[in-house]
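Sequence in, structure out. Go.
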Amino acid sequence: MFSRRLLREKVVQALFQCMVDDSCSEEHVLETLKDILREYYKLYIVVLYIIVKLYDEILKEPDRVGAEQFWKDHERETLRKIGNSPVIERLRKSSLFSVAQKLGITQLVTRDFILRLYKKLENEKWFKEFVFKGIESEREHERFIWNLIEWLLKQKEFQEFLDEHFSSWEEDYDAVLFAIKKTIERTNPSFKGDPIFHEDPRKWEKNWQFAKNLVHFVMNNSQLLDDEIAKQLKNWELKRVSLMDRLLMRLALAEWLSMPEIPVLATLDEYVTLSKYMSSLESPKFVNGVLNALLKRLADEGRIPDYEHRCPATTTNHSGTTDRR
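Output:
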């Protein structure tokens, strides 16, 4: 669940808050990071829970009083098929509801809230088209659930709910959707375990240590990291670099200098990718250019531990860009 890729993103968020406040201790940053991760996981469960509860309302619709006045016989049958989607059925039988109860989500997401969303859903053109045409194949079930997820995000009421209960939901939502995609894949009958993600304690300990080490190195070597970055800037002062870009480059450099088990190009790619959606439009090109040049210089100086082993199939040209072969 909390992969290194996700942890990098959340470390960026926690450290960025510290850079803005300019008064955080390492302990405070780690507590902030834990809060960010807890909120991310809770958002993942909330979205899944709301989706399943909406499916429950779809399943109830054919048998509501007066339903025959609004839906034809074949349409009511389609509603039952949609409500009994194999994906949703696996989620109903999973640990979703027990986890939601443990996290207080069953109290947070009220029946009235679900009904208000459902009333809007049943008036949607795309929803009615599914009901009218019928749904038979697994692909149609999958297409319906992704239409529902996309529709849900566009609902003002849903957005207001997230604004009220999840302070950073807009930053987390793409990652949550990726986790939901993986969860849906795990509802395949060939997957024998619980489709809901739970953190393996052993894996969590290893990944949490990675995050802790990263935070520790950056917070205790910020001047060293900034000095190295500044050397790579041409006709540009470090103070003119945005806080986010500076932080992303600090973290990449920290991994190069202190984590010899991580391939250097994997680190480079991760932070350039993060810059694409955590910083400005110009940031990816800027961050990539500075980091490539910085990597070449430090490698030439022999300052990146175990560089040859971490970058065996790489040559770096004199322009400061990295070629992969």
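Check: Residues 75 and 129 are 10 Å apart (CA to CA). The chain has two domains: 4-185, 221-324.
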